[in-house]
């Protein structure tokens, strides 16, 4: 079932680009344009995203370890309950991306307090002038409160181990790369397309479908 979860996380990151445009557009714009009007080299955009995905992997490892500790503590139904919760959150995430509800924003508000502490450190790293600085800025960017990230973290919690949780968030992070790298290089061109209603609906309902399928797989195991 881990292969299915990895695929779900990868595609959620890819299709979640409709959310990334709105959530991370300002940060990507800050990375994409210099004071002299020039465009940063591609290697800097790679470094930003390397740092961001590194933070995601760290979060996934912590969440996976926490989920594993619940299992080791003899909470027999805990792993199944976490799996069901992860699939339900995936459905809610898809409906949010499609524009049908705002429930996932609860996760973003919960992370706001942490971002208030990280944001000053992030701002001190701007403007970015070197690759190490870009990686650090990207790692700070990974702490931005994001309902999409937090929703996938619930799946990492249900992954059963630190390694599996880290792998899940790595898959998700890799899924976000095409959109966020594309925004960095073609910010003005890609944003109007990603914000079209039909694009949002198609992407969101596809992500919700992963959650529904995950629940169906669980039900079929017990039939």
From TrEMBL:
Provide the transmembrane region boundaries: 53-73, 80-99, 148-181, 202-222
Which stretches make up the Urease accessory protein UreH-like transmembrane domain? 9-213
Q: Which UniProt keywords apply?
A: Membrane, Transmembrane, Transmembrane helix
Entries under Pfam families matching the protein = DsbD_2 (PF13386)
| Stored InterPro entries | UreH-like_TM_dom
Recorded superkingdom: Bacteria
| Record bears the keyword Transmembrane | yes
What is the recorded name of this protein? Urease accessory protein UreH-like transmembrane domain-containing protein
Top-level taxonomy? Bacteria, Pseudomonadati, Pseudomonadota, Betaproteobacteria, Nitrosomonadales
